[in-house]
Structures are given as structure tokens and as C-alpha cells.
């Protein structure tokens, strides 16, 4: 009895190791973690782990080339050492080879990568940001307060200014970008050449946070607002509430970043070199579409489905132009031209619409242009009724908001073209595109010429959640002139290939309908049409009747 109980109960150290390994395996495979641990522990360089957790070397700039915040590069340079000291301890990188430091290594990995509530993940990310700012000498309003409940990490308090919110968002974007850019380290520790990286515009996200907390009024004051203009900031609690309600994926940036860095550490150097050679020329591209990288990133952070990864990749390297199904400035405006581009695409799509309200005046180039979007889970169908299974509305510029389904109704999409065979209708259905609301009282309605869009108050809509799509919308319908419309296919290569096959099949059918086989008709000489024409030309001519 005694012998069996002593051999059946593992030691506390073995029990803890098994628990830590079980917890870590849910986030990353244990063999990969073993390789990353052995390479960081066996390296001659004591800074192997901080270097591995640092983002790839890059030269960053902002759209339009305004100056970067003075301490931005210092914050990114201190990101790796900060994460290593915060979660893995100062001596983790110098752990001797073997299993002596395996359990502490797993503890640190689980602290930052294990599945925890979203508020907890965001608090850890804010701690990293505050520590990186302190190391770089940058101003930071985030403070750490001891928690009376016994939490060893303490409580995150303080206030964030608009500039600090922007720096925090750029830091999170760089952490997401690093997954697509691998750093090359030679045998001698020589670093690769920095790549040129264009940071996304995050003004719409900063404004969204400020408006949600009441720091900026949701009215005409948002037009032309700039991050550098300063103003009232947000308390950390208000910022946390905004993140948990809008860009919910922001809290996952830290765990995703650490996992990606360990994958890069365990990867072969040849793969890293090939990765850098393919991405060096892609990150310094300007935004030329309505779907800018900043808007794609905001939408990706707000989703919790498989489309988030597609848009997250687009926010880093830009969308593949093969996924652009329709652009009014290229393919022409109008419902018929729109339909010729999207017909047969049976997958999720993102529709972006740029317009300006008539009250803004005749100057189209003014700063009062706004952009709204619709994310559909399925393709368009030509019907005279609403249809669809799911979808999202979003305000993309100047303020970002994501409006998911409410679950009350399913009037997600409406696409009605003129029927080929027209008949009299006492109450004809409107021709155009619509999203939400009901027929005749749509929340968003785009006319058949794509020249006018009508946006109604959310009170008419029970399909999508409440919220303003444009600043200072009010209760009355807002009529605006359309500037540009884009449709992006998010279904991947398979859906696009199926659409191409559908179009080829329709072209064949159309060509067959155009051709007329004259052999199927009788001879012209024997036709009644020729007899009638002859009679009309000379009705007095005597003709013998064939009997």
C-alpha cells in the first residue's frame, strides 16, 4: 500500500511542470516551445530572449510624412527587453542548457499567452506599454497601482492623452506586422537591413475612443480633427471599456506577438531570409483605395470570425488587387455595372462607400467626406425582398464604429435590378441596393445610378444594432452624393475561381442566344411575309393560285 502510493504520487515539481505544459500546449505546440527555449537558453548571447522578443528592424513613417512621436523608436526598441523582464524574469535568457529553466520559461509564457478574460489581456498589454515608455523616457499616463485583492500584477490606472492612444495603437500594429516580417540574424549576430514601413492612419480609431467617452463631441467638430491637436484624454477604465466594446481583438496583440516571435525563433534561418526577401518591397505602399490599411485593421480588430485573419493580413501588406471585385471609378457607376462584377460571387464581401452630404457644400475635396461600410457573409442576389443570414455595418471615416446584427430581424441585404420582362406593377419595388430597415424605409439605400445614397436613423432598423453611421446624423434621413464605391471579395481563391467559371458559362449562354440558325426557318420564297410584301408593292398583279 505504502509503496504504491509513493510511486503513484508525483513530486510537486513534476506536478507543476505537467500543469504548465498542459496550459502552454493550448496556445502553442510544446515541441516548438522546446526548440525556442533551447535556442534562447543555449545561446552564448545573454540577450538572446530579449532579442528574440524584439520586433524586426524597420524604419517607420506616417502617411503624408509628418514627424513621428520623438520616442516611438525607443519604445519599440525596448519592447523585447520589457516583455522578457516582465514575464520571463531578468535571468531567463541566461538560463543554462537543460530542464533547469523549463518550468520558469513556461510560467512566463503562460502569464502572457494563456487564455484569460479580455480585460486581463488588455491590462497586461498596457503594463508592457507603460514599462516600454519608461525605458525610452517617453511620457505615459498609465500607472500601476497595487491591488488589494492580492493580484501580483497590480491594477492599471491613469489617463491616456490622444497622442498616447495613437502611439499605443501604432505599437500594437507593429506587433501584428512583425508576424509577417521575420528578422534575419546571421551566425555572427549581424542584423538584417531595416525595411521601410508605412504606419497606418489610426485617427478614426482615436476619435472613436474619445467620442465613446465623451471627450470629443460627435458633431461637426470631428471634421478635420487631428491627433496632434491634443485635447482631453481618457481614463484607463474608459479606454478599457471602449476596447471591450469596439476593437475587441486589441487585447490579443500581446499573446499573438509572443507566439509569433517564438515561431520565428524556432524557424530555420533560411525560411526567415526568404520571408524578408518577399516582404521588403510591400510595406512602404501608400493607401490608394477606400479600404486603407488602417480601416482594414480596425474592422479586423472588431470581428471574432475567420474574416478577421483575412483583414488583419490586409492591414499589414494591403489587400490583393485580385480581390477587388468592383470599383466605381474604374468599372463605372450604376447598378448594372456593379452587378456584372459581383454576379456569381458566392462568398463574403466588404462594400465601402464614400460620399459627402449636400449640406457640406459643393466642394467635393472638403474634409467633410465620410465613408461607411457593409460586411456581408454571402453574395448578392437579384431579388425584390430582403435576404441574408448575417452582416455588419460600420462607420469607417471620420469615426470608426462597428454595428453587429441585433438578432431581431434578418433584413441584411437588398439588391433589386430592373426585370428583363417588364410588367405593370401597382406598387413597384425600389431599384437599388439597401441594407437594414424595410422596403421603402431602408437604413442605407443606394440608388440604381450610384449617384445618391440615403442614410436613415437606426430607429427604422431592427436588423443591425443602434449607432450613428455618420457624424451628427440626427433623426432625419441624410441624403448624400456618392463619390466612390468599392467591393472586396473575402472568400479566397476558391470562391473567385467559382465566380470566373460562372461568368464563362454565362458568356457561352449569351453567345448562343445571339446566334440565329437560318436553317431552322423555311425558304423566303415560300414565306407568307414575302407574299404580303409582293401584294403591297403591286396589288393589281394577277397571281395564279396554286392548287
UniProtKB/TrEMBL annotation:
Region (Disordered): 1-22
PROSITE patterns: TLDC
Lineage: Eukaryota, Viridiplantae, Streptophyta, Embryophyta, Tracheophyta
Domain TLDc: 289-491
Name listed for the protein in its UniProt record: TLDc domain-containing protein
Domain of life, per lineage: Eukaryota
Pfam families with a match to the protein in the record: TLD
Composition skew (Polar residues), residue ranges: 1-10
